[in-house]
Write a structure and sequence with these properties.
Elements (H helix, E strand, L loop, with lengths): L15 E13 L4 E12 L4 E6 L5 E7 L2 E2 L1 E4 L10 E9 L4 E9 L7 E4 L11 E4 L20 E10 L3 E3 L3 E7 L6 E12 L7 E3 L2 E7 L2 E6 L3 H7 L3 H12 L8 E4 L8 E2 L4 E4 L11 H9 L7 E3 L5 H19 L2 H22 L17 H4 L3 H17 L2 H15 L2 E3 L1 H11 L4 H5 L3 H6 L16 H12 L11 H4 L3 H13 L5 H11 L7 H13 L5 H11 L3 H13 L4 H11 L5 H10 L5
Parallel strand pairs: 1-11, 17-18, 18-20, 21-22
Antiparallel strand pairs: 1-2, 2-8, 3-7, 4-5, 4-8, 6-7, 9-10, 10-15, 11-14, 12-15, 13-14, 16-17, 19-20
Helix pairs in contact: 2-3, 2-4, 3-4, 4-5, 4-7, 5-7, 7-8, 12-14, 14-16, 16-17, 16-18, 17-18, 18-19, 18-20
Bound molecules: ligand BES and zinc ion.
Length: 612
C-alpha cells in the first residue's frame, strides 16, 4: 500500500490505524445530542509512539484515557469543514505492532452535520421524534472522534440507548436488546459489525416507530408503518438482484441486506450503509422505479464497502464501478438494450454536470485534487458517469461485457477488505490484460483522468430504446404553433417510465420552450399529475424555464416537501433564475430552512447566494 495521506482528514494515518471501535450512545431527543463513550483499539505503526490526532467536528470532549490511564488532550483550531483535530498525548510510549485502547467520553452538538433530528410533525406517523445520520463523506467526525478517512477500516460494536417506544437500527447486525438498567423508560439496542468498515459507511439511525417486513431470506424492509407495504412491493426484487450481483462480483460478505426507508428530507436517493441500505421515500411511485437505486446500493456491497476508495479523490472508483455493476445487473435481469439505454442517459447527465461546473473546472476531472475542497460542494455525477464511460470504453476495447466484468470481479477479489487508489487500479488493469497492453497504452489516460470537461472519446451506445425519446423530443423542438394540434396522449403512452424520464431529460437540455408549447404539453400529457419524482422534477423545471408562473408554486412545493438534493437544489435554482421569482425562492428557502437537512440547507443557501 502506498503511504497514506488524506486531504479531507486531520487524523494521524501513517503512525497508527484503528482496528475496532466500541461505542456506547445515549440518545437525548430533548437536547438533540448524543452522549457518547467510544473505545478505539488502535494499532501502532511506528516506534516511540506517544501521541495521535483524531478527527472531530463540533464535539465536546470530556475525558480521554489510554489503556485506562488519563491522557492529555487538546482540540486544535476549527477548520471550516474539516472540523477540529483532537490531539491526544499518551502517558506512555509504545512501539510498532503494539495496540492501545483510547477511550473518549464526549457529546455531540445539536448542529452536528451528520445528524438530522426530526420532530414528530415531520414524520409520517406524527407521534414520535426521529433521528438519522448520513456520514459520507466527512461527517462521521461530528458523531464520534475517529480517523475519519476511507483509508482506515475497522470492525465495531455498539450499544444505543433510546426511549422505549422507539427502535434503533445501525449499519450492522442486530445483537439483541435489553431494558436500560440506568433508566426504566429506555431500551438498549446492541449491534455488531464483524466486517471491517470505514467511518463514512458506518452509521445508522435510530428512531421512530418502525415496522419491518421480510422481503427475502437475508432481507427486511424497515420503515414507518404507514408505508411499509408499499415499500415491500417496491423492493420485492431485492433477493434476485443480490443473487445476480453475486454471480457477477463474488459472494456477498455482509450476511444481511436490509433496506430502510427514510423520511422525505433524506438528502440522497440511496446510501450504501453496510447491512442496511438507506433509501429516499420519494421514489415509492408504485412502479418499481426504485429498482435502479437498489441495484446501485447493492452493487456498493462490492465496490465501495468491500473495496473502498483510499481518499475522496478516488471517489470514481466507488461510484464508477458501482454504476458499471448496477447496469450489468440491468443487463442480466432485463436486457442489454436497457443497459445501453442507461448508458446514453448517463452520458447526458455527464454533459449536464460538466455544463453546471463549467468545462474548465478541475472538479470535473475524474480524479480531482481535494486539498481545501469540501466534499459536499464537490459532489456531482461526474465520478459516476465519467467513471462509467471510462469503464464502458475499456470494455469495448478489451472484448465486451463478459471479458471486462471478469476484470472487475478479479479487481474486487484482489482489493477486498482494503482501499485502493486510481494508480493501483490502473496497474492492476495492465496486469490483468497483459496480452492487450498495446491497446491500453493507446488510451488517453491523462485526458480521461486529469483533464476537465467531457472525456476524450465518446463510446458507442445502442440507441434502440432511446430512439423513441429522441424522436418525440425533436418533434416538440421543431413544432411550430400550427403543428401543436398533432400531439396526442398516445405519444407518451408508448413510452415506459424510464423512457418518459429520458424524454423529459432531453427536453430539459433544449433551449427554454415557448410557453405555448409547455402549456400544450400539459394539456395533452397531463404531466402536472405525474407522481414519479424523476419525471415530476424535470417537468417542473421545464415549466419554470419556460416562465410558466403557475408552475412556480408547484416547483417550490416539491423542493420543500421532500429534500433529496438531486431534486431540491435544481428546483430552487430554477425558480431563483426566473428573475421575477428570485425573491420568492429565497423567502421559501428561509421559511423551510429549519426543516431541511443541514447539508441540504448549506448547499441551497450557497446556490441562492445567501450568506451566513
Ligand atoms: N454513496 C452514494 C451517496 C453519497 C455520495 C452520499 C457521496 C454522500 C456523499 C450513493 O450510493 C448514491 O450514489 N446514491 C445515488 C443513487 C443513484 C445513483 C441510483 C443518489 O443518491 O442519487
Ligand atoms: Zn453510489
Amino acid at each position: 500500500m502506498t503511504p497514506v495521506s488524506d486531504p479531507s482528514s486531520f487524523s494521524s494515518l501513517s503512525k497508527c490505524a484503528t482496528k475496532h471501535l466500541n461505542l456506547i450512545y445515549h440518545v437525548d431527543f430533548d437536547r438533540h445530542v448524543l452522549k457518547g463513550k467510544v473505545a478505539l483499539t488502535v494499532e501502532v505503526l511506528e516506534d516511540k509512539f506517544s501521541s495521535l490526532t483524531l478527527d472531530s467536528k463540533d464535539l465536546k470532549i470530556f475525558k480521554v484515557s489510554a489503556n485506562g490511564q488519563a491522557a492529555q488532550f487538546a482540540l486544535g483550531t476549527k477548520h471550516k469543514f474539516k472540523g477540529s483535530p483532537l490531539e491526544i498525548t499518551l502517558p506512555f510510549e509504545l512501539s510498532r505492532g503494539q495496540h492501545v485502547i483510547v477511550e473518549i467520553e464526549y457529546e455531540t452538538s445539536p448542529s452536528a452535520t451528520a445528524l438530522q433530528w426530526l420532530t414528530p410533525k415531520q414524520t409520517a406517523g406524527k407521534k414520535h421524534p426521529y433521528l438519522f445520520s448520513q456520514c459520507q463523506a466527512t461527517h462521521c467526525r461530528t458523531m464520534v472522534p475517529c480517523q475519519d478517512t476511507p483509508s482506515v477500516k475497522h470492525t465495531y460494536y455498539a450499544q444505543v440507548s433510546v426511549p422505549r417506544e422507539l427502535v434503533a437500527l445501525m449499519s450492522a447486525l442486530r445483537d439483541g436488546q435489553e431494558p436500560d438498567p440506568s433508566d426504566s423508560s429506555r431500551v438498549i439496542y446492541r449491534f455488531r459489525q464483524p466486517v471491517s468498515v470505514t467511518s463514512s459507511f458506518f452509521f445508522f439511525l435510530k428512531s421512530c416507530f418502525f415496522k419491518m417486513l421480510e422481503i427475502g431470506p437475508r432481507s427486511r424492509v424497515w420503515s414507518e408503518k404507514e408505508c411499509v407495504d408499499e415499500a415491500a412491493f417496491e423492493f420485492s426484487e431485492t433477493e434476485t438482484m443480490l443473487k445476480t450481483a453475486e454471480s457477477l462480483a463474488g459472494p456477498y460478505v455482509w450476511s444481511q441486506y436490509d433496506v430502510l426507508v427514510l423520511p422525505p428530507s433524506f438528502p440522497y436517493g440511496g446510501m450504501e450503509n453496510p447491512c442496511l441500505t438507506f433509501v429516499t421515500p420519494t421514489v415509492l411511485a408504485g412502479d418499481r422505479s426504485l429498482a435502479g437505486v437498489i441495484a446501485h446500493e447493492i452493487s456498493h456491497s462490492w465496490t465501495g464497502n468491500l473495496v473502498t476508495n483510499r481518499t475522496w479523490e478516488h471517489f470514481w472508483l466507488n461510484e464508477g464501478h458501482t454504476v458499471y455493476i448496477e447496469r450489468m445487473i440491468a443487463r442480466c435481469m432485463e436486457s442489454e438494450q436497457l443497459r445501453q439505454f442507461k448508458g446514453i442517459g448517463g452520458w447526458k447527465e455527464l454533459q449536464e454536470s460538466v455544463k453546471q461546473f463549467g468545462a474548465n473546472n478541475v472538479l470535473t476531472n475524474l480524479v480531482p485534487n481535494m486539498h481545501e475542497v469540501d466534499t459536499d460542494e464537490a459532489f456531482s455525477l461526474v465520478p459516476y458517469e465519467k467513471g462509467f464511460a471510462l469503464l464502458y470504453h475499456l470494455e469495448e476495447l478489451m472484448g465486451g461485457p463478459e471479458v471486462f466484468m471478469g476484470f472487475v470481479k478479479s479487481y474486487i477479489q484482489l482489493f477486498a477488505y482494503g482501499s485502493v487508489t486510481t494508480e493501483e487500479w490502473k496497474n492492476y488493469l495492465f496486469t490483468y490484460f497483459k496480452d492487450k497492453v498495446d491497446i491500453l497504452n493507446k488510451v488517453d489516460w491523462n485526458g480521461w483522468m486529469h483533464t476537465p470537461g467531457m472525456p476524450p472519446v465518446k463510446p458507442q451506445y445502442d440507441t434502440t430504446m432511446a430512439d423513441a425519446c429522441t424522436a418525440l423530443c425533436q418533434r416538440w423542438v421543431k413544432a411550430k404553433e400550427e403543428d401543436l394540434a398533432s400531439f396526442t396522449e398516445a405519444d407518451v403512452k408508448k413510452l415506459n417510465s424510464p423512457q418518459l424520464i429520458e424524454f423529459m431529460a432531453l427536453l430539459l437540455q433544449e433551449e427554454p420552450f415557448l410557453l405555448s408549447h409547455v402549456k400544450k404539453m400539459q394539456e395533452v400529457y397531463q404531466l402536472n399529475s405525474v407522481k414519479n419524482a424523476e419525471v415530476r422534477f424535470r417537468w417542473l423545471r421545464i415549466c419554470v424555464k419556460a416562465h410558466w408562473e403557475e408552475a412556480v408554486p408547484l416547483a417550490l412545493k416539491m423542493a420543500t416537501e421532500q429534500g433529496r438534493m438531486k431534486f431540491t437544489r435544481p428546483l430552487f435554482k430554477e425558480v431563483y433564475n426566473f428573475s421575477k421569482y428570485s425573491d420568492e425562492a429565497v423567502k421559501t428557502f428561509k421559511e423551510h430552512r429549519g426543516a431541511l437537512h443541514p447539508v441540504t440547507a448549506m448547499l441551497v443557501a450557497k446556490d441562492l447566494k445567501i450568506d451566513g
